[in-house]
Amino acid sequence: MSQSIEERLFAIRYKADDKSHLIIRDQEVCLNCVTKECNFFCPADVYLWHDDENMTSVAFENCIECGTCRIGCPTQNIEWVYPKGGYGIAYKFG
Amino acid sequence: MAEEKFDAVVVGAGPAGSIAAYTMASKGMKVALIERGEFPGAKNLFGGALFRDPLDQIFPEFWKEAPLERAVIEQDFWLLGKDSVSKFGYRNEKYKQANTWTALRVNFDKWLAGKAEQAGAVPVYETVVTELLKEDGKVVGVRTDRDDGDLYADVVIIADGVNSLLAKSLLIHREWQPDEVSLAVKEIIALPRQTIEDRFNLDAGEGTSIEFIGETFGMVGVGFLYTNKESLSLGIGIMVNDLKKKRIKPYEVLDGLKEHPMIRRLIQGGEVKEYSGHLIPEGGFTSMPTLAGDGWMICGDAAQMVNAVTMEGTNLAMQSGQLAGETAVAAKERGDFTVHTLSQYPQAIRNSVIGKDLKKFKGLHGLMEDKAAEVLFGQVPESVNEALYNLFLSDGQPKKDKQKEIMRSLRQTVGGNLGAVRLAMKGWRAMNG
Domain B4-68+103-176+286-360's class? Predict the structure, then answer.
């Protein structure tokens, strides 16, 4: 009964802002990052490194606002604030 | 809401903030309760179990009206092996007089914030506090993301949760380190009421809580399974430091647990209703920041008030909210909101069960930071399961030889006699400050 992460995220209620609350400070830093850990530790697969474009993409509309990336990024390269008031996730059970 | 002046502004309508707001509003103070979510509870989750104390002292017999799930009559601890489990558990009919309940935070937090509103606190929801307003080094209010969104107050109670960007702006804590926080991911799995009661051997309204270690790829992690009325809460909390090292996706660890033969049967046929994730501050005593200053106090997760050993956080948050609220009431009476009066709050925390319990377990953090953790969370569960398998195996080997072999293999797991002593000493220090 395990679901894909897409199915899981689909079941969460979101009100997505059109502006990202997560910003990569410097893509150059990502390029030089050996581990690219954010591609693994994020529970909502927000971060993905693209070899062809030399950039980390940020699917901020999937963010569950836990803060792991803020603490986990080895170079503190993620600028992290809360989504605008009333936006972002709204759990049904919690 | 421009230039509006309150006695107190509370940032965050979780358990700490709502209790603080309730405590102050019910003594006639003019209070604003700010919450960034669409409603209180929207961003919140826990395992979760809720304890009788201290809420019972604030709202006597709260269980008669609060939205709770089941009264916990059995608490289990499991050591998972690959295809096996060693179980330790405790059940008592006395718990029919409930002491602990399972709950869902979206319902519970909404109810609790409602109590603060009924006492007169002004709800300011769907609003993010972006910074603290200061004059001459003293906190005098908050700036929000609303138009004309400055709110002034004699005291600001910071209860903005584990990420607490406001505490960071005050420079009272540096960024949490990856070994001071765990990431918990959880699923709500719906099952019929009767199925839950049959599977867990429960009467109507009764519940079970199970905590387990093992099968987390050697990472410091504790799994949990709680019975709700018509769902199960299944999840796993893993130290962020270990997640970084192992490069394993958190939900894949959860998937592994769901497929474990001892858990698979319990959740069989259930429908996943919600996936969620949250950080847990687990740094303990030594990670707690300065708790009060001129015009401010800090409570709950934002102040690292979680007991990772006993899995308590919500009740510590509520108690800290109460103590901060009472301090604010005293400050109002005295007409002094400087650190001189507000330092009553850290004093009260130190003398409360929060300060005492966190101090007692302050060695835990040290236990989690090196090889010891890998042994405790990785090899020990597997080794205990293996030992029990051999003990119960009928293979014609004399029991004396079996015992010897079991002791030898357990000793080897913890690194020989010296390793066992070292681990025991660390464990003792972790449990006894």
Answer: alpha beta
Q: What is the pLDDT along chain B (433 residues), one digit of tens a residue?
A: 446 799 999 999 999 999 999 999 999 999 999 999 999 999 999 998 999 999 999 999 999 999 999 999 999 999 999 999 999 999 998 998 899 999 999 999 999 999 999 999 999 999 999 999 999 999 999 999 999 899 999 999 999 999 999 999 998 877 899 989 999 999 999 999 999 999 999 999 999 999 999 989 889 899 999 999 999 999 999 999 999 999 999 999 999 999 999 999 999 999 999 999 999 999 889 899 999 999 999 999 999 999 988 889 999 999 999 999 999 999 999 999 999 999 999 999 999 999 999 998 887 777 776 677 888 888 889 999 999 998 888 888 888 888 898 888 888 888 888 888 777 777 777 776 5
CATH 3.30.9.10 domain span(s) along chain B: 181-281
Pairing between β-strand B296-298 and β-strand B292-293 as defined by DSSP bridges: antiparallel
Residue B391, C-beta contacts closer than 8 angstroms, at least 6 positions apart = B402, B403, B406
User: Which CATH code of 3.40.50.300, 3.30.1360.40, 2.40.10.340, 3.30.9.10 fits the domain covering B181-281?
Assistant: 3.30.9.10
Other beta carbons within 10 angstroms of residue B90's beta carbon come to: 10
**How far A75 CA lies from chain B's nearest CA (Å)?**
13
* ipTM of this complex prediction, to 2 decimal places: 0.96
Which of B34, B142, B274 is most worth mutating to test chain A (most A CB atoms within 10 A of its CB)?
B274
Q: How far is A52 from chain B (nearest CA, A)?
A: 22
CB pair distance less than 8 Å for A67 and B279:
yes
Measured between beta carbons, the chain A residues lying within 8 angstroms of B104 are 93-94
How close does chain A come to B97, measured CA to CA in Å? Answer: 26
CB B82 within 8 A of CB B382: yes
Closest chain B residue by Cα to residue A69: B240
Dihedral over Cα of B193, B194, B199, B203: its sign: positive
CA angle B373, B376, B379 (to 5 degrees): 115
- Closest in A9, A76, A86 to B275, CB measured: A9
Minimum-distance CB partner of A84 among B107, B145, B243? B145
If 0-12 CB within 10 Å is exposed, 13-18 middle and 19+ buried, where does residue B297 land?
Answer: buried
**Do residue A84 and residue B251 have CB atoms under 8 angstroms apart?**
no
For chain A, the structural domain boundaries read 5-89
- The residue among B44, B251, B282 with the most chain A CBs within 10 A of its CB, best to mutate, is B251
A5-89 CATH fold = Alpha-Beta Plaits (3.30.70)
